[in-house]
Amino acid sequence: MKQNLIFVVILLVTLSMVNAIPLDKRATTFGPCPEGSLPILAVTLQPDPPVPGQNCTVTATGTIDSGINPGATLVAVALDGAHNVISSLASVNICSSGVTCPTTSLSVTTTFPVDASLPATYSISIVVIDENKAFVGCSYGAITG
Predict the structure, then answer these.
(1) Which residues form the MD-2-related lipid-recognition domain (predicted)?
(2) For residue 47, what are the domain limits?
């Protein structure tokens, strides 16, 4: 009887541990940037989450009501918990990447190397900056390793 009880306890503990282990990493969810009320971009990462020391492909799509003109840039930065930039990941001229300008909609894909020294937990901000250096679109996602 005592052996059966021990067996059942070990079995239940093992099953609860297996159930707690994530089988796949969660996809990064992008939402509005912490400050301001800029249009939100739809962002996907591949691989998701990014792997430090390897390349990552980011695709950003969205509508910018104020318009995208020649000189507009898509910028990707890594941020720490206090929203300080810890690494500049990518900077792409939107109108040179297949988007016909002027326009209000964009779909930009770029690949960048992920800094191997990034901490396990950080955030990525994808920002559209117009030709006057003003932020006109933004998305923010938390990366947990």
Answers:
(1) 29-138
(2) 24-144
